[in-house]
Amino acid sequence: MRAPAIPPLSSGPTPLYGAYGIVKRFGDFTANDGIDLEIRAGEIHALLGENGAGKSTLMKILYGLLEPTEGVITHRGDVVRLPDPDSARRLGIGMVFQHFSLCENLTVAENIALVMPRALSGRALAARIAALAETYGLHLDPARPVWSLSAGERQRIEIVRCLLQDPRLVILDEPTSVLTSGEAETLFVVLERLRAEGRALLYISHRLDEVRRLCARATILRAGKVVGACDPRRESARSLAAMMVGAQVSALKPPAAAARAGERLRLERLALPAPGLHATDLRDVSLGVSGGEILGIAGIAGNGQAELFAALSGEVRAPEAEAVRIDGRAVGHLGINARRRLGAAFVPEERNGHAAAPGLSLSENAVLSRHATAPLTRFGLLRRRGARALAQAVIAAFDVRKAGPDPAAGTLSGGNLQKFVVGREILAEPGILVINQPTWGVDAAAAAHIRQALLDLAARGAAVLVISQDLDELFEIAGSVAVLHAGSLSRAMPRAETSRAAIGLLMGGSADPAGPPPALGAPAGRPEPAHAEVS
Fold this sequence. Notes:
By secondary structure, the protein is α/β, with parallel strands linked by helices. Among the domains are: 17-92 and 167-245, P-loop containing nucleotide triphosphate hydrolases (Rossmann fold, 3-Layer(aba) Sandwich), CATH 3.40.50; 264-352 and 433-507, P-loop containing nucleotide triphosphate hydrolases (Rossmann fold). The protein has helices at residues 55-62, 85-90, 108-113, 122-136, 151-163, 181-196, 208-214, 237-245, 305-313, 336-341, 362-368, 384-397, 414-426, 444-459, 471-477, 500-507, and strands spanning 17-26, 29-39, 44-48, 70-75, 78-80, 93-96, 169-173, 200-204, 217-222, 225-230, 263-272, 282-290, 294-298, 324-326, 329-330, 344-347, 432-436, 463-467, 480-485, 488-489, 493-494. Strands 13, 16, 17, 18, 19, 20 and 21 form a 7-stranded mixed sheet that branches. Strands 6-7-8-3-9-10 form a 6-stranded mixed sheet, with helices on both faces. Helix 11 (362-368) packs across helix 12, helix 12 crosses helix 13 (414-426) and helix 13 (414-426) runs parallel beside helix 14 (444-459). The protein is globular. The termini are far apart. Keywords: ATP-binding, Nucleotide-binding. Belongs to the ABC transporter superfamily. Residues 17-248, 265-511 form the ABC transporter domain. GO terms for molecular function: ATP binding; ATP hydrolysis activity.
């Protein structure tokens, strides 16, 4: 017998999907506490809240990854049960995840085939992928292995995989967090088209200007409860942020000016052949970062950012030791641990699996990147108490929201895990910090906190290199900005002497008239990987 229908919360047509009285407990922790939410056909509905507010838990319930402790889900007013994602997909629910659920060693087509009917595979699936990607401007090569793709390209796989299922409801969890402005604009066109087709979209984003542009309704969560609703088009980004966190978000405070120290990080004509068929060669990259300085590196995803980070961190070693220098010492031949011993710290783009081990506890992750550095002796590295003390220091300093005293890193929301891995490195007081996409997936208050921490670290004499696709972020914190395009780096331009438009042109491949001559090519030798070490 069909379950009874539930009337909508307000007058109007029956919602396409609804969630009523949703409670989700994990032991003594309540992630969702009596949430009501209705999603109507033909609308883009925002779900807003600070990191740890319960958004991701609610989305997992709607997609069948979790079952609620209490409450019901409805489809066209009828109560339904979603015990697994297959059940959700059969009811027309698709999801684009913030954290990529992709198999590194499989191709684009093979990853998409994992959630498609068996009848659609091989050449037929590859043709569908190519046609859909061409239609929506989300270009993908079905034959490329996932490990060779940038974060932006991986996000496209998630979006295409969802759209191939012809969903009636599309849940998007931070869909533009790793996209460039151009890629985001393409996505917005796709979303508007889906809305015009009568589909419902549930949009989670900390980029509040996007929410104001796309969404006609917003539900706001705080501490697992619904605390308000609004029309985002009638709000400012600042007022939306205040609703999310319960207070106004403070503007960045310029730290007391520190005397510029000498150059602490130097790349000198670093040339590295791509480590894989679809990676990007680095072509005669030169840069210098002094103590007290923040240098921003802008660029469209896939132009060598991952390769540059690997060369800076020591995951891939340079053919010549002199190509990379830390405080004047040639380190191009050294790996990650040796560079950390010299006072360098690194935060990679991918927090799950690269910056943190999802299955390990926070205390274990707290020492994961410091196990070979001398300062850790004061924490009692091999003693559980010392590891927990270090983790608690990071949690307190960066307001990391968690369930339980020492949970696994993989149980944290994306934004809270980002705060943890960034805080872990900053609290080490490095002399050099290299950080890739520092505020990916964090809320407005957390982004401001991280950016302020980077400014303060530089003011204490550290050399900070920030790789980011967010031009607003770079123009807010960096003293100078350079652009990485097709593996070549432009000259660093003082922030006051350039503009977003000029940087955007360089990101698109326009020549830098004052920059270095174009590289003739990378050397034939291949770098030595440092596989055993962790960023």
